[in-house]
Amino acid sequence: MTERIVIVGGGTGGTVLANRLTERLEPEIDSGDVEVVLINDGEKQFYKPAYLYVPFGKKDVSEASKPIRDLIPRAVDFRVDRVERVDTDRKRVTLASGGGLSYDQLVLATGANLAPENTPGLVEGGHHFYGPEGAEALREELAEFREGHIVLSVIGVPHMCPAAPVEFTLMVDDWLRKRGLREDVEITYTYPIQRAHGLQSIADWVTPIFEERDVNLETFFNVQEVDPDAQVLETMEGKEMEYDLLVGIPPHEGSDLVREAGLGDDGWVAVDQHTLEAEHAEDVYAIGDAADIPTSKAGSVAHYAAGTVAARIASDVRGEIPTASFDGKTVCFIETGMDEATFVSFDYGSEPTMREPSKPIHWSKLGYNESYWLTARGLI
């Protein structure tokens, strides 16, 4: 009887996993003993880090997507459909197109969802760069912006690409300077806890940079509501802040699919942080943003976690005891302007070591952005 591995989600984690599994289980797939099914609710994968560059005219949204079919082996059964329900007792998923699909191993790579509507007034009064429409709208606003107050407010945590708010702030500062507009623009960065970033070492590193560049830093700033008419942020702490251009990092949500399946009350799958196995069901894994683990919701986490899960599933298929373990490895480039960047790497229990920003590291990030699709195909 064929063993079926079902992957839900065709982002970085989903396609890397599909590639790794077909590589590790090639003999079993060729013989028909194993089947790998990838289900995604659209035909394309989107490389979201590219959206950071769209507001500055350095990228176009068309460069940030590719057909998933081009990123996975032909041996993978790719289905464009929506999984509406997971029954972990019957080991079966229900599809929007009708019917269902049984599984022997299930991997949830459902990502994170933007929920700006959870903050009253944010949709009407703010911009963001976490999706194609938002990045393009922000590009139009920035192109016409000449003077006033730009506020970058981290409203929702956790969020995808944890360094991106810092990057945008430093990039917009440099971008305005290069255009001779910085003297007429005030920039403020806000964060909901008592430092500039969730990771202490990044907060300690960026705080003096903000001061040097005349960027206002407001911490313990939890936005409760946006008044789009008055252009005012209102916080849970009773503070108010006026703005002319608001770039808000919107709240993120987990998946209703996860919540309704009893795999995580808040929509993120509760997993063992090392095995990535679900805590509330057997033969279920989660990778990437969907997994509730103590590290960043970053593409590199999905990439490395996919390798761990592929190794564990391959061992299980072959009747071996799985030993592969995920150490929380995270790798992240951080732009510090329009032509310099730094680079961090860390894992569970360790803080990033901050490196001196440089042009070569910036070029390295641009190079990786161009070669990302090799990662999605499991080649790097």
Automatic annotation (TrEMBL):
TM segment ranges: none
The organism's place on the tree of life at top rank: Archaea
FAD/NAD(P)-binding domain residues: 4-296
GO molecular function list: oxidoreductase activity
InterPro entries documented for this protein: FAD/NAD-bd_sf, FAD/NAD-binding_dom, SQRD
Protein name: NAD(P)/FAD-dependent oxidoreductase
